Amino acid sequence: MTRQIGIVAAIHRYPVKSMMGEELNAARIGARGLLGDRVFSLADPATGKIASAKNPSRWPALFSFRATFTRPPEENGALPPARITFPDGGSVSTEDKLKITGPCGRCVMTTLARGDLPKDNGILKTAAQHNQARVGAYASVLQGGKVQSGDAVCVESG
């Protein structure tokens, strides 16, 4: 005997672990769960650990980012690119032109006054305390393209 106890009110897929995701009208569910759910994650390069919203003191802003697929994933197919939208509205795709090749340590130059920004010795101290003085990254170009003043600069981890 079967008895209905409720209805599916909403389906959500989260392409990147601990980020906001996308609402779906329908989805495939297989042996590993919802197709395309939590297939990407961010790794902390210093520790190798996966970033998680379960650790809000270390990753307080993860829920401010949203990840969606550029097209629906297909069973037994390659994953489509994911687009991560930043809190300011900018975004990056898993297919964009740069690959981060390593962290970039910074020196006293980051503390000096520039334009209307005042000198701030706390910048380097904070970077050293929380991120081994790494506040930049080295990258190699994966695909060339036009860059112009006003373009968004986005970061992809992976």
Strand content: 15-25%
> Could you give the order of strands across the largest sheet?
5-6-7
Largest sheet: 3 strands, antiparallel
How many beta strands in the DSSP annotation?
9
The averaged pLDDT comes out at 76
The radius of gyration over CA amounts to 20 Å
Number of helices: 1
- The rounded distance between the terminal residues' Cα atoms is 48 Å
Helical residues, percent: under 10%
Order of SSEs, N→C? EEEEEEEEHE
Show unreliable segments: none
Sum up the overall morphology in one term.
elongated
What structural class is derived from the secondary structure elements?
mainly beta
What do you see in this structure?
A hairpin with an 8-residue loop joins strand 1 and strand 2. The chain has one helix at 122-131; strands at residues 11-13, 22-24, 29-30, 33-34, 66-69, 82-85, 91-93, 98-105, 134-141. The model has no long low-confidence stretch (mean pLDDT 76). Strands 5-6-7 form a 3-stranded antiparallel beta sheet, with no helix packed on it. It has a two-stranded antiparallel ribbon with strand order 1-2. A two-stranded antiparallel ribbon has the order 3-4. With 158 residues, the chain is mainly beta.
